[in-house]
Amino acid sequence: MSSSADSASTTIRADGDGTPTAGATLRTRHLLLMIVAAAAPLGVAIGNLPIGIVLGNGIGLPAAFLAAAIIIACLATGFIRLARQVRAEGGFADLVRAGLGEGAGLGVAYVTGIAYWTGSLALAASTGYFGNLIAHSHGIDIPWWVYSFVAYGIILTLGRRAADLSARLLLALMVAEVAVVVALDLAIIVNHGASAFPVDVFALSHALSGNLGPAVLIGFTSFIGVESAVLYTRETRDPGRSVPRATYGAVVAIGALYVLTAWLIIGSLGTSTAVAKAGELQGDLVFTVAGNELGSTFTIVVQIFFVTSLMACFIALHNASSRYTHTLADRGALPRTLATLHPTFRSPARASTALAGIGLLLFIAFAATGADPYIGLATSLTGLFTLGIVAAQALVAISVVVYFIRNGARFAWSTVTAPLLGGVGALLACAAIVANYSVLVGSNSLGARLVPLILLVALVAGFAVHAVRHRAPARRGQAPQEVVEAA
């Protein structure tokens, strides 16, 4: 799961013409490095590949990454083009508002807020599962939910105190992740030669086999956040050239890394046995492959960096959902108390505490019912997270087309064709995830199949809340007042 999700939820602080601020120093290579590093490739390899192979389209998973990369590139084209026209505001909600109106924008804000929160829940489940798995491999046997509770304790502390991870340290860790994945890929190539590249993984019979929903889910989850180069417009020396280059370069680089890694891991396992081995090992799959290819010491290195990746992603998604909640409350779209800031750190303390508290209560219930933290909790919550973000991306694509046609733009690749293709692809991805959601949950019950309706209700709620607020012009014009907790 990408750790840059929080950046995708923030606002674009750029003038309409994309003019950089004085002292802007970022170039294409800087933006590209930040996006690729923040994509958390080690987290994707260890956390997502087994799910895609076991629940998805088996050895055809590399094709899912390739298809997702193409669709994301089309979506990013429209995202970048519209962001140039949006003055001082951005994010999915504001881009949708620009083309589809206030109600749609508010609805997307609700959807993305819920999506990021469920994404943080998925990471809490993954932290518990992999914490237990790694500790067990070293002779320590502690229930998975203990690790999830500890992670929530860290989140509660950081969320209230605004204790950000050092940007440079985080970037260094993420770059190290990329290096670890590349080292594993190279080892597989050296050890297996041509057999590491089985061409039949791209055969249509394999690409379309199994359950496409989980395969599509893994493909799109792994690319969430690649459009975040737009957020650095004012810090970039030549944003008109650097932002598009970095975005497309990131899609190519991340796509190539994921396709190659999935391809090589499947090749190292053997196409005839990869699905069975992935089902047997589940989250231990990549650790086992790493040990086989580079030895037990390298496995420990992989485990260390994977733990840092999980926590970085967890913090990022929790921060994103907290800030979405705070902003919506500050604008009167959620209870006002959730807009309360910490008196010292000026962080969205009330929103952070509320979301973490609800999440902690849910995990107490999950632990009590004996829920499977990986194939069950993590998969279903990741499904809801990805569905929400991809649905928001589809609405952004529609907004791009509507905005430019309404403003007299010619039918061009960046204003109509690319966003239209990307939007159709995103909608098809949403349909595949919804159709196979029961596979992610591990239950075919009516309740499990209806879970995605939460996002539809959130979208409709945006229109309803906007309609109610529109009838109260006196309140609508009031500027929000900053509220802080009592010291």
Summarize the structure.
With 487 residues, the protein is mainly alpha-helical. 72% of the residues lie in helices and 0% in strands.
Structure description:
It is a single chain. This protein is mainly α. The chain has a single domain (5-471), classed as Up-down Bundle (Amino acid/polyamine transporter I), CATH 1.20.1740.10. The protein is 72% helix and 0% strand. It has 21 helices and no strands. It has helices at residues 5-9, 28-38, 41-55, 61-83, 91-100, 102-137, 144-161, 167-192, 204-207, 212-221, 239-269, 274-281, 285-294, 296-330, 349-369, 373-406, 413-435, 437-441, 446-450, 453-470, 473-476. It is a multi-pass membrane protein. Keywords: Membrane, Transmembrane, Transmembrane helix. Residues 1-21 are annotated as: Disordered. It is found in: Membrane.
Q: What attributes characterize this protein structure?
A:
487 residues; mainly alpha; 0% strand; transmembrane helix; AA-permease/SLC12A_dom
CATH domain fold name: Amino acid/polyamine transporter I
Written as H for each helix and E for each strand, in order along the chain, the element string is: HHHHHHHHHHHHHHHHHHHHH
The CATH homologous superfamily: Amino acid/polyamine transporter I
Largest sheet: none
The CATH C-level name is Mainly Alpha
Q: Low-confidence stretches at least 5 residues in length (pLDDT < 50)?
A: 4-18
Amino-to-carboxy terminus distance? 37 Å
Structural class, please?
mainly alpha
CATH architecture: Up-down Bundle
Helicity, in percent? over 70%
Q: Kindly state the mean pLDDT as a whole number?
A: 84
